[in-house]
Amino acid sequence: MDETRVCQNCKKDFVIEPDDFLFYEKMKVPAPTFCSECRLVRRFAWRNEKSLYKRLCDKCGKGIVSVFSKETELTVYCGPCWWSDSWDGLNYGVDYDPNKLFLAQVRELFQRTPALANYTVTSTVENSDYVSMAAHLKNCYLTTYSDFNEDCLYASFILYSKGCVDNLMVDHCEF
Q: How far is CA 140 from the centre of its chain?
């Protein structure tokens, strides 16, 4: 029989089905107190693609723009350092311990391994320092998930565009 509960976060009703309860019992975990949407938001809350910070590369000391603030405990490398052979990612590897929670081990590995400051292909970007998740840009500012653009500002998910401002999901657009 279905059970309706109130989400402890958004206060909306959500339904837990009998098959869900069987799964929770099998996995030896309690039934959720958050609805599926709030659980999804909580899982993705650690991601950041749009907030950019000035900081120093922890490898070469150069000033960079990063998706990680200088207050983070992570080691952050600029693109050239992260992609170089001057460090070996295998040095950060750890053996899997079946006696510990898997995701706790993934978190530990994530925290100890140097992170790439900004997922931008810097060798293909010209005069576009404040961008993230981008490649092949010229004169762009505060754009994310963007490729092959010129003179674009304040945009996300734009491709092959020129002169666009304040856009979301634009392809082959020119003003």
A: 21
Q: What are phi and psi for residue 155, nearest 5 degrees?
A: -145, 155
CA pair distance 16, 161, nearest whole angstrom:
45
Q: SS3 for 141? A: strand
Give the residue extent of every domain in the chain.
3-44, 53-116, 125-171
DSSP letter for 133, please: E
Please report which helix (H) or strand (E) contains residue 40, including its range.
helix 36-44
- The answer to whether 42 touches 32, Cβ cutoff 8 Å, is no
Look up residue 44 and give its DSSP letter. Answer: H
- With 0.85 as the threshold, say if the pTM is over it: no
Q: What is the pLDDT of residues 76-102, one digit of tens each?
A: 999 999 999 999 999 999 999 999 999
DSSP state of 95: -
